[in-house]
Amino acid sequence: MKRRMKWLTAALVGLLSLSLLTGCSTKDANKNNAVKLDPSNPVSLTVWHYYNGAQQAAFDQLVQEFNATVGKEKGIYVEGFSQGSVSDLERAVTDAVAEKVGAQPMPDLFSTYADTAYAVQQQGKLADLKQYFTADELADYVDAYIQEGYFHNDQALYLFPVAKSTEIMMLNATDWQPFAEATGATIAELATVEGIVQVAQRYYEWTDSLTPDVPDDGKAFYGRDSMSNYFVIGMKQMGVDIFDVTNGAVTLRPEKEQIRRLWENYYVPYVKGYFTSLGKFRSDDVKTGDILAYTGSTSSAMYFPNEVVLNEGSKPIEYMVLPAPIMEGGERYNVQQGAGMAVTKSDAVHEYAACEFMKWFTAKENNIRFVFESAYFPVRKDANTMAALDEIIKAEGLRVNNKTYDCLTSIISQFDSIHFYTTKCFNNGYATRKVLDYNLSDQAVADKAAIEAAVAAGTPRAEAVAPYVTQAAFDRWYEGFCQALEGAAHP
User: Are 248 and 122 in contact (CB under 8 A)?
Assistant: First the structure.
């Protein structure tokens, strides 16, 4: 009887221990990447992205390499699908989440900006990626890039960085030279937003003086691609978070004094003809000779033209990469942008496999190979040095676009001295950001057209401009701007 009791006790202890071990194994399976895959029956993953041209070719090549090596060994097969532009991708994801008629099923992974990912996560459709990464693995990535993927205080990671970008300034150095020699303008003046306005005025006046028989035909000097970045980063440089977000709730802070400075340094020079925006992107305006310089994404550097195309023919130009300008007296903040990847919530096998692919894709060598085709930045700490970039270039025999290389050099060489900033996510964040993108810029375009019409009708330019640049004009616009922001954030 005693032997039987001992046997039963031992059996119970054994079962309990097995149960506990099984429980620990299940609990820690994801955390310690212990999900079992079957190479003889690989799990298939679909990836939606917005890459096109050289970027898509680089992504597709890396996917093929993954499938033939690590994917084959582990039992993961990845297939990428370009959805077109960023807006096309956002629409496809939104339709899939809403299960609209005719929409495709949700992919396993998709490229996305934080605002879109946040909206999808709010509907419970995103996987928590933190369970598939150890703390040491996450520590290998740039801290600010990882932090962007935490939407709440629940410590869940919903967005993973694969490539990042910021803003730089690109200059037509060839046509800058004669202007600088004639007027004494210096590159140092282009370090601040206010300095650019002053240089742009001199450029307008100088180009106007070249044709004394034709009055008021000065040319614009500058433009910028993202107006929302101008607002968000400009305000941050002046010490204000225009979107002050806590736990997903936003407090709008369009402080009038700081907004007035932004208005004076974009809208006013725009309606006066010192700035302009004609093509889809400002690099297009450089190519047509309508501006000499612009502020845009680092990824735009590869599109900076090699020549200016005019009615009388084309001419080659040289370029110069400069830091993005800051508000005078402000702190050096640069925008942190670039889509990450999100994983659709499904099952442990698909989620784990998706994370294994992202780990491989963002490994130092692979990530650097991808970013060289896009003028984005690698996301790991050990890859964000020029030594690391040069090492991969030499080892892989890569041919790198000079503009891309110079752009990466200009940022990475001062990487540790720049504060990279991005707004936190909140409900209706996408719509609210669009107010920043279009409210002031659309007003500037419309008012500039009205001024040109008045001038064409015989009104002196200074007289035509005057009513648009007063305190009363700013107050009217500011009131409407604040109402538009509030309506978008809290509909």
Answer: no
